[in-house]
Write a structure and sequence with these properties.
Blueprint lengths: L17 H24 L5 E2 L2 H9 L10 E5 H9 L9 E4 L12 E5 L3 E4 L12 E9 L4 H26 L2 H10 L4 H12 L10 E2 L15 H4 L10 E6 L2 E6 L2 H9 L17 E5 L12
Parallel strand pairs: 2-6
Antiparallel strand pairs: 1-2, 3-4, 4-6, 5-10, 6-7, 8-9
Helix pairs in contact: 4-5, 4-6
C-alpha cells in the first residue's frame, strides 16, 4: 500500500494505545511466522536478531516496548531467500527492498503485512510502499584488516547519508538541510551499485566477520566493543543456531545467545530505565486493515 500526504501538511506523532501497540506486535508476529515457514521449507538459515533475540531470552516474546521484529541472514542465505519469494503468501505479506520497490531507500529489507499502512514520522513525503513490518538485515563480509574495516565503515556511513538525504533535507535545518539537499541529487541506484563490490565477495564459507553494510555497525551502536571486534560480528553467530520460544512460537536464533547479546547490549538482562522504554520508530499514521485483532500463530 502506498500512502501519500499533501505537501505543506505538518504531521504529528501518533501515540498508540496499549491495545494498538500490542496489535502491531502481533501483526509483525504473523509476518515473522510466514518468513519462518518459507525459510524452513527451503533450508534457508536465518536468526532472530538484536531486540528480538533479547526479547526471546529475557521475555519469551517481544520486549514490551519494542515495535518490530528483526532477523538477520548471511548474504548467500538472503539471496536464496530472494529467489523463493514466489512461495510467500501475498495475502499475508510482501518483501520490500530497492529491487522490489525502486522508491525504497534503505539498505535492509522490510517484510510488510499486506493491507496495512505504517508511516514513520517525518517520512510522509516518501513514495515507497508502506505497511506494518519486520526487518531483515542481510550481512556481508567485512575486510580482515582493521584499516580495511575502518575505511569500509566510513564508506558505508557516507552511502547511508545519501540514502537518508531525502528525509534529511525535509526534517533538518540550517547547514544540514543544505547538505542533505545536495546529497539528494545523487541517484539512489548508484549507492546500491557501490555496495555490489562487497556483496559479491561475501560467502558463508569465508572466515571474515560480517555486518549489514548500510546500517551502523552493531558493535558500536549500543556498546563500543574493542576496535578489532566492533566493525563486524563472527560469522558462526549466524551459522550455529538454536530454537527459541517467542510469543508461543519457535524461531531460530544464535546458539551462543550470551555472546551476541553481550556484544550488542553488554548487561542485557538488566531492564533500561523506564524513560527509555519507548517505541524507537515514532509513527504518524497507522492502519491495521483487516488484520485480526488477536493473532494466534499456533492456529
Amino acid at each position: 500500500m502506498v500512502y501519500r500526504i499533501e505537501k505543506n501538511i505538518i504531521m504529528e506523532r501518533r501515540i498508540l494505545t496499549s491495545e494498538e501497540f500490542r496489535r502491531m506486535q502481533l501483526v509483525g508476529l504473523e509476518v515473522l511466522t510466514e518468513v519462518d515457514r518459507v525459510c524452513r521449507k527451503h533450508n534457508i538459515n536465518y536468526v532472530i536478531f538484536c531486540g528480538t533475540l533479547l526479547g526471546a531470552v529475557r521475555h519469551k516474546g517481544y520486549i514490551p516496548w519494542d515495535d518490530d521484529a528483526d532477523i538477520a541472514m548471511l548474504r548467500e542465505d538472503y539471496e536464496k531467500f530472494k529467489s523463493v519469494l514466489y512461495d510467500i503468501n501475498p495475502e499475508i505479506c510482501f518483501v520490500q527492498d530497492h529491487e522490489t520497490d525502486p522508491e525504497y531507500r534503505w539498505g535492509y529489507t522490510k517484510v510488510r503485512r499486506t493491507g496495512t499502512t505504517y508511516i514513520r514520522l517525518g517520512q510522509e513525503h516518501l513514495n515507497n510502499k508502506t505497511g506494518i513490518f519486520i526487518d531483515i538485515f542481510p550481512l556481508d563480509d567485512v575486510p580482515k584488516s582493521i584499516v580495511g574495516q575502518v575505511f569500509q565503515d566510513f564508506y558505508c556511513y557516507c552511502c547511508r547519508k545519501v540514502l537518508w538525504s531525502e528525509v534529511g533535507k525535509v526534517n533538518s535545518k540550517g547547514v544540514k538541510k543544505i547538505w542533505f539537499s545536495l546529497l539528494s541529487h545523487i541517484p539512489v541506484d548508484r549507492v546500491f551499485k557501490w555496495m555490489d563490490v562487497y556483496k559479491k565477495k561475501s560467502r558463508n564459507s569465508t572466515p571474515n566477520r560480517v555486518r549489514n553494510l548500510l546500517f551502523p555497525a552493531i558493535g558500536k551502536v549500543y556498546v563500543h566493543n574493542p576496535i578489532r571486534e566492533r566493525y563486524g560480528m563472527p560469522k558462526e553467530w549466524f551459522l550455529e543456531r538454536a530454537e527459541y520460544d517467542f510469543e508461543g512460537h519457535k524461531f531460530y536464533g544464535t546458539k551462543d545467545y550470551d555472546a551476541i547479546l553481550c556484544y550488542t547490549y553488554r548487561d542485557y538482562m538488566a531492564l533500561p530505565p523506564e524513560e527509555k522504554r519507548q517505541q524507537h520508530a515514532p509513527v504518524s499514521f497507522i492502519d491495521f486493515g483487516n488484520t485480526p485483532i488477536n493473532y494466534n500463530p499456533n492456529k
